[in-house]
């Protein structure tokens, strides 16, 4: 079937992280719809799918979580409500495209994974240490914490970038992110307090991730290392051997690499002049990347 081939092609590409995240969420969503329908038809029980869900969603009870550590990641791909997944995927596409353009596929995936982990940590801690949350055991699922991390990361990275919103017009994404965070704060005393706390955990991660990146620290390196190890394991590729060369041989290569990565100061000044004349959106993709690299020095 062409659909199966399209899916296989999407996951075989190494520079397609955003589409892979979107597609994985959709596939899990469709899979759960089919599973829930099949179980209902077989058992006439509308909750027959809950035991399976509990094995994939984050439990609020730490003792249960210790027996299901994989839920810290699997929960971030599970949705049941159509508008829930629609809202998450639209934001993942819009803001994820910005993150991918300026930071690359690997850091986009790192943000998604770390946002899920921190969101789950906030959820479990809130349910066990904040009196207002102490209630019956609950579970957490959905990509909202990961998406919040990407939204806030994009707004921290490019605060003055604008999106055109229907009936409103151009809006800087720093204001969009601020509204989304305020909505989560306001929702803590609503019907989904645990989910809102997880959203705030993801938002905090997104902010800290970019600030640390500007300081020269990539919080996503452990995620990328684990991803590389899993990828090599699945593909059967051997690990690369490290060979040592003399400093005399390395010096010319290092100089060439430094010259190719770090933009010249005159070029940066020209880019800044272009921003002052025509605005940030007038920059090309290459100019924006050079400006971002210069900000990390």
UniProtKB/TrEMBL annotation:
One biological process term in Gene Ontology: proteolysis
GO cellular component: membrane
Domain DUF6576: 264-297
Organism domain of life: Bacteria
InterPro entries documented for this protein: DUF6576 (IPR046483), Peptidase_S54_rhomboid_dom (IPR022764), Rhomboid-like_sf (IPR035952), Rhomboid_protease_S54 (IPR050925)
Residue ranges of coiled coil: none
Record-annotated Peptidase S54 rhomboid domain positions: 68-210
Localization, UniProt: Membrane
Key words, A-Z: Hydrolase, Membrane, Protease, Transmembrane, Transmembrane helix
TM stretches of this protein: 21-42, 72-96, 108-133, 139-161
GO molecular function: serine-type endopeptidase activity
Protein name: Rhomboid family intramembrane serine protease
Organism: Hymenobacter persicinus
Source organism phylogeny: Bacteria, Pseudomonadati, Bacteroidota, Cytophagia, Cytophagales
